[in-house]
Write a structure and sequence with these properties.
The complex is a heterodimer of chains A (163) and B (529). By secondary structure, chain A is mainly alpha-helical. Chain A contains 9 helices and 3 strands. In chain A, strand 2 (135-137) and strand 3 (140-142) form a beta hairpin. Chain B is an alpha/beta fold and 529 residues long. In chain B, the strands form 5 sheets. Chain B has a 5-stranded mixed sheet with strand order 2-1-3-4-5, covered by helices on one side. The chains are: A mainly alpha (163), B alpha/beta (529).
């Protein structure tokens, strides 16, 4: 048991249960372990790194190095309905920069929307390059996106969550 | 009763295909979810045939509201007639994409009925060396961007003995790996995604052929997390392939033992570089490795590893089924066979074009793509992803092939063409290329890690200066260092879009007129990304 686990034994036990099977069966399991923890919690909680290091028998620094390298891996819970607008070239060619700006302005006028969506975490390419601007709203791909389409997609995701 | 076909591809779904399928299904119609034909400007493209294998007619841009009172009819404005006679599709020569948009991607019977598994059956009837010879004879080159001959890579792996994972005990099991690079991070490219969503068994068949050819027992598909639909489809396809005896022990009754898993990326562009991908697959930071050793000799976990792009592997089944000679007869010079081009960005008719190498960029952009979507004059086309060169609209008379593009200082990359109309500011695009490198550099080598940061600064200086000559000299010098001194294509090719923008569109870098672009505006740019 790590020092952190003594602080929060419940979290430690959960993380251990999640990652131990991976560490036992997979070669080079560290990234898989981090992804598994994130899948469970929505982020990688404080203390999980130490447990993964213990289970995989490597240093915490090595695990932290992997954790901090990948932009998908998060230190804190994300927004309820994350919005990600593509910021890469093919979408730039059809107004992605203007869309991102207009969306930020929309969120400035609507604090609830800003809080729910985290405004925008840019992403480089969603593979919808002929139907841009593309955006990912709560994991759902939106093509030919404009502010209204994003607002609608957020509303659909919110109602989907409450139902 | 008629059969209706609605694409389940992510691009079609992003335009509302699911709702259309739901409405048609609720009306009691037989609806088959297929991949996308690749005529993306028409999505959702709904098709109908008298029987499952009958001639299909189609309707473009169908909305759920349009079909609320019943399925579309031949008198509707959206009616397209026979789908395979649409000019965009009729002129294509589909080897890799032969079944995409046609079959239900997760129906093994549909796959076999349309020629699936004939390549693997042909391969299993041959000695492994003969399979490698076929791939060599086809002239197939890596479709991920580097263009290395696939057959030579395979032969190298075939010549190696299987090896145990690095660091394992001497009596540990020995392996060779087939690694498929599905980390399709280049903007303007989506052919890997659409193939995996539209015909996943084709990729698995190609991997099994590679495994037979080189003596591999394990396969891994490194798939980017930005493609959730492709991840779901591939995983389901692997499950079904195991049930069919297409993966696992004794594939198709032969003595080939081979299984495949999907490993999901974590949001790092540089992991599309093959050695960074290996690091990531081994659970580490996705940092580029120095070569040698070549991955073919010491690859994943230190074992001999074939690393090929999705399209390279997906080309192999039809090469084996239809003959290496027929494949090699297509194309020009050392660009043989077909390439899946992707028309993207500000394009009137965007999508997938699989044709033989050698079609001109002009034909792709103006003939098939029909110019810009905005209707404004075309200004530039970026060929080959974020690390590819920008070409001027009046300089598109170049054949799309490895050699011809290289002669123009450009590259084919993964086959994407991104169109920009005359509203684009090429200095801003050059700056973005450097910014992207700042964001995505793995940090291992100095020219890329530091060079990209300096690149952004120098471009800002150049644009703010009344005498930009000095800054331009510095930028060119910096680009030279990055090109010559970087460990991989990330830093090594970032200068390509930058210098092509500078050389082809000098008017956009006119420092005197751009005095207003101060450092302050640079900050605004940063916030925009």
């Amino acid at each position: 048991m790590t020092a952190r686990e003594q602080d929060s034994p419940e979290l430690g036990a959960t993380v251990r249960t999640l990652v131990a099977p991976l560490a036992a069966t997979e070669a080079g399991p560290v990234l898989l372990c981090l992804q598994k923890v994130q899948e469970h919690f929505g982020y990688v909680p404080d203390g999980a790194v130490a447990v993964i290091a213990d289970v995989c028998n490597i240093t915490r620094a090595d695990v932290h190095g992997v954790f901090s390298y990948y932009s998908d891996l998060k230190q804190s819970p994300g927004p309820a309905v994350p919005v990600r607008i593509c910021a890469a070239e093919a979408c730039q060619a059809v107004g992605a920069r203007a869309l991102a700006k207009a969306w930020r302005e929309q969120c400035e006028g609507d604090p609830q929307l800003a809080q729910d969506t985290g405004v925008d975490e840019p992403v480089y390419c969603l593979g919808n390059c002929a139907l841009g601007p593309a955006a990912l709203v709560n994991g759902e791909l939106v093509g030919r996106a404009d502010v209204q389409a994003l607002v609608d997609a957020v509303a659909a995701a919110r109602s989907g969550e409450s139902s | 009763m008629s059969v209706w076909f609605v694409p389940g591809d992510a691009a079609a779904r992003s335009m509302g295909a699911d709702r259309v399928a739901d409405v048609l299904t609720a009306q009691g119609l037989e609806v088959v979810r297929t991949g996308s034909r690749g005529l993306l400007w028409l999505e959702p493209l709904v098709e109908c045939a008298p029987t499952r294998d009958g001639v299909r007619v189609g309707w473009g841009n169908v909305k759920a509201e349009d079909v609320a009172k019943g399925p579309p009819t031949a008198t509707d404005a959206s009616y397209l007639g026979e789908v395979e006679k649409i000019d965009f599709l009729a002129g294509q020569d589909r080897w890799i994409y032969q079944r995409v948009g046609v079959i239900d991607p997760l129906d093994p019977d549909d796959f076999v009925a349309h020629g699936g598994m004939s390549g693997l059956r042909a391969a299993l009837a041959m000695a492994p060396t003969a399979v490698v010879e076929q791939v060599l004879a086809s002239g197939l080159r890596g479709r991920g961007g580097a263009g290395f001959p696939a057959g030579i890579k395979w032969r190298t792996v075939a010549e190696q003995a299987p090896a145990r994972h690095k660091g394992q005990a001497v009596d540990a099991p020995r392996h060779k790996y087939i690694c498929v690079n599905a980390d399709e991070g280049d903007s303007g490219t989506f052919a890997d995604r659409m193939l995996m969503e539209g015909d996943p068994f084709c990729l698995l068949e190609g991997m099994a052929i590679a495994a037979h050819g080189v003596g591999a027992d394990r396969g891994v598909i490194y798939l980017r997390s930005e493609y959730p639909d492709a991840i779901r489809v591939m995983n389901e396809a692997i499950e079904k392939a195991r049930t069919q005896g297409w993966l696992g022990a004794g594939i198709l009754g032969s003595d080939l033992n081979f299984d495949v898993t999907v490993r999901v990326g974590a949001g790092s562009y540089v992991c599309g570089e093959e050695t960074a991908m290996l690091e990531s697959l081994e659970g580490r930071r996705g940092m580029v490795r120095a070569k040698p050793p070549l991955p073919a000799i010491e690859g994943l976990f230190g074992t001999p590893t074939v690393i090929n792009n999705v399209l390279t592997i997906a080309s192999v089944p039809s090469i084996l089924a239809r003959g290496a000679d027929a494949y090699a007869a297509l194309g020009e010079e050392r660009s043989r066979g077909t390439q899946v081009f992707q028309l993207a960005g500000n394009v009137a008719r965007g999508g997938i074009v699989e044709v033989a190498f050698g079609i001109s960029a002009h034909e792709l952009v103006f003939g098939l793509g029909q110019g810009t979507r905005s209707g404004r004059p075309l200004k530039a086309v970026q060929v080959g992803g974020p690390l590819g060169a920008y070409l001027r609209a009046d300089a598109l008379d170049v054949p799309m092939a490895y050699e011809a593009l290289a002669a123009r200082g450009a590259m084919l990359g993964h086959g994407g063409l991104v169109l920009f109309d005359d509203s684009v500011d090429m200095a801003e695009q050059a700056r973005f290329a450097m910014e992207f490198c700042v964001e995505e550099s793995c940090g291992k080598c100095t020219p890329c890690r530091i060079g990209a940061v300096r690149g952004v600064e120098v471009i800002d200086d150049l644009l703010a200066s009344d005498a930009p000559g000095d800054a331009e000299d510095l930028l060119r010098d910096l680009c030279d260092v990055m090109t010559q001194g970087s460990l991989c294509a990330m830093g090594g090719l970032t200068p390509q879009p930058v210098l092509s923008a500078l050389d082809q569109f000098p008017e956009d870098f006119d420092g005197g007129r751009r005095g207003e672009t101060s450092a302050g505006q640079g900050v605004a740019h940063e916030q925009a990304h």
